[in-house]
Batch of 2 targets.
Target 1
Amino acid sequence: MHWQVVLVGGLLCGASAGSAGEVLSLVPKPCRQERREGQFTVDSQAAIVAEAESFVPIGERLAGAIRRITGQSVAIRREAAGHGKPIRLARADGQGRLGDEGYEIAVDPDGVRLAAASPAGMFYAAVTFAQLLDAAAPAASARSVSVPCLRIEDRPRFAWRGMHLDVARHFFDKAFVKRYIDHLAAYKFNVFHLYLTDDQGWRIEIKRYPRLTEIGAWRSGTRKHYFDGRGDATRYGGFFTQHDLREIVAYARERFITVVPGISMPGHSQAALAAYPELSSTGGPFEVWTDWGISKEVMDPGKEEVFRFVEGVLTEVIDVFPSRYIHTGGDEVPRDRWKASPFAQARMRQEGLKNEDELQSYFTRRVERFLNAKGRWLIGWDEILEGGLAPNAVVMSWRGTQGGIAAAKAGHRVVMTPHEQTYFNYMQHKAKRGPGHPGYLPLEAVYAFDPLRGLSPEESKHVLGGQACLWTEYVPTPADVEYLLFPRLLAMAEVLWSPAESRDAKDFLARLPAQLEGLKRAGIRYGEVESP
Ligand code: ACM
């Protein structure tokens, strides 16, 4: 496919309030949409009417979007009476039809009706309406913007529409994390996997274990940069206080996004071991790692103090993050130290564990029991399948989809994030210009991803949804993150929200230019779209 041709051809779009039948530039594409004659103009006569108390904050957010896009300040009221041009936020009957997150929109010349059975659904209605306004903005006169008359009925395909950010390899501050959450909300993602700890940095304050951030949040240099392969010896680090994280959680919740914390164990934990070397097999000492890759230094499940530590950390994590799902990593755990450890080997004898895979499974089961007793679910990378899956564990399948498929067949819940289609740290250009890892993941490959491929309808019921990940070894700045995020985030949004039957790359590309214009207006740098 020649992307350029499609882009230049520009079938557009909702960008001007044109005639019935014209393509709307919405992303993700709604389940059903129908263009009508005419348009609704947002001007000084318009007012938002929140017909339920729980819709008022969404009305306020919509008023903010209208002000940003059109320059108009619109009032928010609880009653429509006396208003010529209401934008009604109405409670829909028919929760069954719209589900927990669905919504309807009716735009007519004399008024707009957004309807949902839940605040989440109303939020997505408002996001869609804001996109319609944003697409119309370039053609707008100074004080009014017109949206085409239409009908939309919409609900998501998947319950888990996830996006991840690694703040361990490089640290991104609270202001940027909020901006990132805004990006996710704009495309109807509802899970933010905030990856907080790895070998190269521990980024969450734990009051019981202060050295985790006093020592573990700081490394003495960074071995390798993407742009020249060389490193530096500059002290690097940072962390979030629990206060910061509560603020991030609240910010996300207002946008109907759950923050799932990621705490790596028993591997990818050298920063923790630098702070508390007694958790390792050898006792250390260790430095917070300055290199990338897979460290051999891991927690030793032969030691009871490791479980005391993990439970202490998770107790505070649970207190900060209300998410039902707590991600405890489990990937890439080398067995070298356990093989040589008297503690690990003694544990294996006592528990009748045949090998180190079963030792990791023992570790995961114990952590899961702890989380389940607190009303939380353990989610981990697909390596947690090795040695036997903990009974209630959720599998996040990253080494392709095979692990997820095996887990779904065994009746476990699954989130699909196969690296070859969802790792946004891979570059999106053949020329492999940085930032990013030296892999290649063009927009088209993301758009072609289907979390249910290879699964029967019965097995598919166990797939909660999918996620894209953004690992930051070679992604040092916020601008680099956004460059890798966009426009692939839009493709992933459509994968996770829109019906499988409506997937059509050509149609997506026809809607893309108006979206890219919006990103440009917002000052967001994005990767150029190229033909793979
Ligand atoms: C992973 O990318 N190691 C989960």
Target 2
Amino acid sequence: MKQITTIKEAKQWLKSYQKKSLKIGFVPTMGALHEGHLRLISQSRAENDITICSIFVNPIQFNNPEDLAKYPRNVAQDARLLKNSGCDMLFSPTVEEMYPGDKQENLEMDFGMLDKVMEGKFRPGHFKGVVIVVRKLFNIIAPTHAYFGKKDYQQLMVIRRMNELLGHKVKIVACETVREDDGLAMSSRNLRLTIGERQVARRIFEVLCKVREKGTKTPVWELREWAIKKIQEDSSFRVEYFEIADRETLMPVESWGHKNQVVALTAVFLGDVRLIDNVELFS
Ligand code: PAF
């Protein structure tokens, strides 16, 4: 596996593949890799001629400096995992390489409400930072296919919209959420849970599954309130939001008229670790 840290070298390395019109699969990450990321790599390998992974803890998508400081980083271990999983190139630039000087990045894209509800509301500026870095990475790598996990459902929708606005240059591939044996969605943030918190963390997915089960038998507002109460029955949890929303626009729904295309999404603090998860309903 080739390891590259500069944009110039990455572009140079990719030139020969681009000339041959090969399929280039791309898995953008912030590192602290787990099985969820490795599944994205393996899907990309199955569908492309070469697979590139990037590791870049993108400072401009963190609205909370403490969260950025605490984000787990271990590029050497990640590189070993990627090598063993058959990744062809790892691009791991520095912050200075990606954002040289004080240059302010602009984002003239209209996402409607997609980047304003839920994560957009509680993490102001987050999606702006995600879109800026993903657009930049797409420009450097010029992938034919890019792989994103459904755990970050809203991010996936925002990136799809970005790709649409940029003229569909990349095929965005959505991959199912990978879960631990007890159902907890795999996330780099799980590393920050205490042993006690880790033992109870499955509650989030359990409640989401119950919501899926209860479905249309209960009015939307009542189900939403029930879910929040159920998660918070254990006082180590604090629900930031719990929404049942249209799968495409992510606007919260008021009734089950939409029933074929809704998703239940939540962000929950367990201690001081913020976890997100979702399940698609009626699929
Ligand atoms: O999902 C992530 O890890 C990040 O938001 C991404 C897409 C790599 C952009 O920094």
